[in-house]
Every structure is written in structure tokens, then in C-alpha cells.
């Protein structure tokens, strides 16, 4: 698939790019610090299999937290809402993604939602398979179907870098294990979780996955219902309430679309007009969102009237 370079989008990228200097590339996972500070690219993938791009769109990047929506979709389809929501809640926290404070103060041991690290670790521990290898292949197979790209795999370098430095995530697993919420083997789940976060793709792959969500789980190219309709709806709702970390409220006001970001600088957005958006801009704001990526979405939302909360979507 060749994406058309789109001049108007390019102008928006140039405008948003001015923000990159105010952000900072994540370095708490050492390998992420190797990304360039001032890069920004975007791809838009529409249901009719057309595609527009601007910026350095050939670059690949790791999903990090964006993967949390995809693992959630998989386990919701395998286990159903009741089982999944008995282990993880449905409320935003207002805290940073790696905070553990509410694990102790609210419903001890049960994470508030699947978009924060504690909740995502529980979700990953539920991924089905007879062995760690099986579980990884099962997740990768699902993500390859979502992007309709069999080449997708994880970046070993980033996965190993996070695996050897993730002590807070390990601490949260043990804490939840004490309360019987987390049932897996901590090291095995950490291995799968870090590989999940290190799954690597281009903004085109990401935009295509966004388009699957925009079409309520149906794939624009293959026509396959890859995600059940109800599960796609739940995932999109989580993206609105907690997809942009503890800036989700402000993002809902300024942009108004379901979106999920990751500390690599990726953002997946879902437009009400049947298209998905994939963004990569590694410089982050203080909440962990791509600083120029958010600016770009603000510009696009204003220009193309993307907010789900505008009246014309209700009539
Ligand atoms: N792998 C990252 C972590 O667990 C994901 C965080 C993120 O992208 O928000 O810290």
C-alpha cells in the first residue's frame, strides 16, 4: 500500500513540530532514549483503503502503552467482561501510568483500569497459551491480523532494556499477587509484557489498527471482524476516559476522539469519520504524551471537526 503524501497534513506537521523542543524523549527505559527528539510523522488510514501521510512516516517505533488496548481487546474476547472486570476496574485514576498509590488506597490489590501499568500487567497475565512462547505468538498473531501485516514483530533491544530496568512494574505484580488478583508467574509475565510493549510498527500499521476500531472491529482490507463489536466499543471508551494518561480529560476537551499514547511517542487515534490515525513523535510532555503529536491532533480536530462531542454526531 502506497500512502499519498498530503500537503495540508504536512503543513500541520510543520506547525506542530515547533513543540518538540519543549518535550523530552523517555529515558527510563534506556533504549527509548535513542529516538530523535524532533521527529514527527502521521498517517491517516480510511475505511475505503485510502491512506494519507506526512512527515518521516517510514520510521518504525515500539507500541509501549498503545499495546495495552490491544491486549485488552484480546482478553475481553477470550474471557468476557465479567471475568476481566473482576480483576481490573473501569475508572480513571488521575495518577501517572506507573503509579501504585491507589493499589493500596482503593480496593486493595485491584488496579483501577487496564490502561495504567498495574491493570495492563493483570491483563497480560491473562493472555492464553500453554507456554510463554505460545502466549507471545498468540498476541503477535492477533496484532498481525489487526494491521494485516505478517511482518510485525517485537524489538528485542527495547524489550531487554525494559525487562532489566522494570522494578516498579515487578513490585506492582507482587503486590497484586498478595491479594490474589495477579495469578501468573511474575518473571514470565514481565517477559511477555516487555515484549508486548516492544512490538514495533510503522504509523501506517498503527493507523490501520485505528481504522479497525473506527469500524467497530471490522478490518477495512480483509473484511474480517477481528474484534467483536462490543469489545471495540469498550476499548474505545477506555481510550476516551484513560487513553492519554492523566491528561485524558484535557485531551477529550481539546481533541475529543478516542486515542491511546505510549512513552515511545506513538499515538493511535480513532476518528468518527471511519479513519484511524497513527502518529510518532518521541518528545514527550510531562504526562508522557507525545507533545507535538497532541498538538497535531488538536490542529486536525479543529480543522476537520473531529470531536465526538460535537452536536452533529448526535443528529
Ligand atoms: N512499557 C512501558 C512501561 O510499562 C509502557 C508505559 C507507557 O507507554 O506508558 O513502563
Automatic annotation (TrEMBL):
Its EC number is 3.5.1.2. Keywords: Acetylation, Hydrolase. Substrate binds at residues 65, 117, 162, 169, 193, 245, 263. It catalyses: L-glutamine + H2O = L-glutamate + NH4(+). One of its GO terms (biological process) is glutamate biosynthetic process. GO terms for molecular function: glutaminase activity. Homotetramer. Belongs to the glutaminase family. This is Glutaminase. The lineage of its organism: Bacteria, Bacillati, Bacillota, Bacilli, Bacillales.
